């Protein structure tokens, strides 16, 4: 296992992982990258703690620190893991993760449901426009269904009754924060809150466009920035294929 991969990409949304694919395909042309997926069961309490524990079991016997990366909730899990087990992490790359890690698209969804007396379907349709931009009706319908399922599967503790918060702050290892100037969830103001915790070796970069899933719309532009960051921190780039791993409580 020690030589099988250098970077581990974390995903906590089976239904939205398709939007990671273009970036991972680009990155896998330059490095040994693996995907670790967390799948929450229906009867499991919504919490990222279980995902962090399973990730530790997966990396427990890995003989060197790992470069971790992830988008959204996957990035929040990577951040929580890096704070709890810093000796296992060589660098951290977070995409669309706010300095308040719980400030994700689900939090925006539930906030709108609390604020306005409109249906779940209308809020989800509005969320599609915010996260992906204007889409054709048939695409919007598919994306609404995907977001609806993500609300059930993602390990978030948000609900109609309460919005939760996670600890803010930095990490001890080098960290890269990526966002988009057109992301209404992790917008520029929210993203720049990270500047309060960044170290000299850290990097904050914004994609000019792309909404919340900017890495899907601009995989090469995002990938080039990430590769530059990893190269600065002694990740040797090689041609390799992506690997995939999955964890759940089953």
UniProtKB/TrEMBL annotation:
<dbReference type="InterPro" id="IPR000073">
    <property type="entry name" value="AB_hydrolase_1"/>
</dbReference>
<feature type="domain" description="Serine aminopeptidase S33">
    <location>
        <begin position="59"/>
        <end position="212"/>
    </location>
</feature>
<dbReference type="InterPro" id="IPR050266">
    <property type="entry name" value="AB_hydrolase_sf"/>
</dbReference>
<protein>
    <recommendedName>
        <fullName>Serine aminopeptidase S33 domain-containing protein</fullName>
    </recommendedName>
</protein>
<dbReference type="InterPro" id="IPR029058">
    <property type="entry name" value="AB_hydrolase_fold"/>
</dbReference>
<dbReference type="InterPro" id="IPR022742">
    <property type="entry name" value="Hydrolase_4"/>
</dbReference>
<dbReference type="Pfam" id="PF12146">
    <property type="entry name" value="Hydrolase_4"/>
</dbReference>
